[in-house]
Design a protein that fits this description.
By secondary structure, the protein is mainly β. The chain has no helices and 55 strands. The chain has a domain of about 300 residues: YVTN repeat-like/Quinoprotein amine dehydrogenase (Methylamine Dehydrogenase, Chain H), CATH 2.130.10.10.
Length: about 600
């Protein structure tokens, strides 16, 4: 049985307050790049639903840049490693790996001929290094600054120059090759955060946390003047030149972006991005006709020069690990939630994402289910059940102000769509919620981990950390305990099949066990044990013939109910990231989410 990764709903850039983010652009103008965790994410600028993820770094990647030829990408990580890999093949074959500095890399620049690379950051002996991309041979020294270097750029025309911006508030200029320190510029009064040459190399601009932007001559490094006075009320996090070199885009912690006219050094357009802290702008890129900025919340804004108060497109999603996943009954929408409490609704066909608005949990969401009227029920570690109701047609739901207090931390939930009954397993009890109120509860003497309800038989299965599946019967609002099913490890997930005939339970002992719901005996004598680590989640296909499981071992396995010996392993389904949730859209399409904040859609045709 073959499988393919249909598409990836990509993670957003991982942002940090007070830390600029570097976006990379493709010289052909088709793609842009950013990083999240140990992934480099490549997105199509015209159709951002098309994305590719590179996951070969073993620790957090900070920056990735295309070579001017467009054939290679250099990415630098928190350990000081630089990997140079190709963009042409789907496998992104590694060309070279170097360790130029001994600490986090913050910025990378290529020379115009794609031969030399300069990297800067927080090294132990030095804060930057210039070397040949082919061999790693040194072509000069980056010295003369006393604190970590935040930004670097290579002059795109001869004579070659390198400029760097440092946390000692200075801009340093280097001449070469081989590159030697020439001078420092001391106009900035706080951290210098960004330096960028104009496309023809005749000028370069620097920006800093003092809110100022300065312009210098590209060849002589002489100060030309200050742009704006000052340019922003908050620190400037990033700058980007227009392709013709006549304008400059800047983004700032004062929650605005601006376009500056180079000739007059005055502001041409101001973009107001909002009033909340998460509207601080931490990065920007000018790619062809597209002007992009990144907010502190991680969302990517496509700026609209004709309407500066409203971006013409906003890319939403997650930039923290995804903890929960559920499917809307219409099977066109899937909801994901991350450990910072952000809930996102995705259109399965187009990959378009919208954040659920309103007062949510504000912290980790442990479970979600969709109800009959299309509203979304969520439980979080603020010990409440909340409901988000659909707004207008085509809009994402919005949280209502009403919440149901649960009294202790919820671990899992399930929902019967027909009569709006929800069962929530908290660390102390099983609670039955009908409509919007708690009807009854049953104290527990074990720690529950997961819960599933079969709407037909009204059986409730609760997995426990005590290595058992506990079965109950639900009579309107009362739960009556029934059988116990023994496992060899803590039970991690339980699911009833859509046709009500089967129950599957997964455990931390790497096994899946299939039970027949007539007598809760084993449905077949094969145990499914091909995962190499704890199984986190399971899901039945709509026709009840297949089961998908996702594990800590990063792989996804599709099992066949009628032919228990047959299965398909999708290895490295989420490379270097455990799988935290799984659901079927239809009988041949599976969606998985993981700790890498990516949502992947798989095609798993029947044999």
């Amino acid at each position: 049985m073959s499988y393919s990764n249909k598409y990836i709903f990509a993670a957003l850039p991982r942002t940090q307050r007070g830390t600029p983010l570097v976006l990379g652009g493709d010289p052909k103008g088709r793609n842009f790049l950013y990083t999240n965790g140990n992934s480099v994410i490549i997105r199509d600028i015209e159709n951002p639903a098309i994305s590719d993820v590179y996951t070969e770094h073993s620790c957090q990647v900070n920056v990735a840049k295309y070579s001017p030829s467009g054939f290679y990408i250099a990415s630098g990580d928190a350990s000081g490693k630089v990997r140079i890999w190709d963009t042409v093949n789907k496998e992104h074959i590694l060309k070279n790996e170097f360790q130029p500095i001994g600490g986090p890399i913050k910025d990378i620049a290529w020379s115009a001929d794609s031969q030399r690379i300069v990297v800067v950051g927080e090294g132990r002996e030095r804060f930057g290094h210039v070397f040949m991309a082919e061999t790693g041979t040194s072509v000069g020294e980056i010295s003369g600054q006393s604190k970590p270097i935040n930004s670097v750029d290579f002059r795109p025309s001869r004579p070659f120059r390198i400029v760097t911006a440092s946390e000692d508030n200075t801009i340093a200029v280097f001449e070469g090759p081989p590159f030697k320190f020439k001078c420092t510029k001391q106009e900035h009064t706080r951290f210098a955060q960004a330096v960028r040459y104009s496309p023809d190399g005749s000028l370069f601009a620097s920006a800093g946390f003092d809110g100022k932007i300065y312009l210098y001559d590209g060849a002589t490094s002489e100060l030309k003047g200050e742009i704006g006075s000052p340019a922003h009320k908050g620190g400037v996090y990033g700058i980007a030149w227009s392709p013709d070199g006549k304008q400059l885009l800047s983004c700032s912690g004062d929650k605005t972006c601006a376009i500056w006219d180079i000739e007059t050094m005055q502001r041409a357009t101001l973009f107001n991005m909002g009033t909340a802290v998460e509207n601080q702008q931490v990065s920007c890129l000018w790619q062809g006709k597209h002007l992009i900025s990144v907010s502190l919340s991680g969302v990517i804004n496509y700026l609209d020069v004709d309407n500066p108060d409203k971006p013409w497109q906003v890319l939403m999603g997650h930039n923290k690990p995804i903890t929960s996943l559920t499917l809307h009954p219409d099977r066109h929408t899937v909801y994901t939630a991350s450990h910072d409490g952000c809930v996102t609704s995705w259109n399965v066909e187009t990959g378009e994402a919208r954040h659920i608005q309103g007062q949510g949990h504000g912290n980790q969401v442990n479970g979600m289910r969709s109800s009959k009227d299309g509203s979304l029920l969520t439980i979080g570690i603020d010990d409440t059940l909340r409901r988000a109701v659909p707004a207008a047609e085509g809009e994402a739901p919005t949280y209502t102000d009403v919440s149901v207090p649960l009294g202790s931390q919820p671990r899992a939930m399930d929902h019967i769509i027909e009569d709006d009954t929800t069962i929530i397993a908290t660390v102390k009890e099983l609670a039955v919620v009908i409509g919007g109120s708690k009807q009854s509860s049953l104290p527990l003497n074990y720690e529950p981990t997961c819960v599933a309800i079969d709407p037909k038989s009204r059986h409730v299965a609760v997995g426990g950390a005590d290595n058992k599946v506990h079965l109950y019967t639900l009579d309107v609002r009362t739960l009556t305990p029934g059988q116990l099913l023994e496992h060899l490890g803590p039970v991690t997930d339980v699911r009833f099949s859509p046709n009500s005939r089967l129950l599957v339970a997964s455990d931390a002992n790497r096994k899946l066990i299939l039970y027949s719901t007539d007598d809760y005996k084993l449905a077949h004598n094969k145990e499914w044990g091909f995962h190499t680590a704890r199984v986190n989640c399971v899901a039945f296909s709509p026709d009840s013939t297949r089961v998908a499981s996702g594990s800590l071992d990063t792989s996804l396995i599709i099992w066949n109910v009628d032919q228990p010996a047959k299965h398909t392993i999708i290895k490295n389904a989420h490379p270097q990231s455990q799988i935290t949730g799984i659901t079927w859209v239809d009988d041949e399409t599976v969606i998985s989410v993981g700790q890498d904040a990516n949502t992947r859609v798989w095609s798993v045709p029947k044999a």
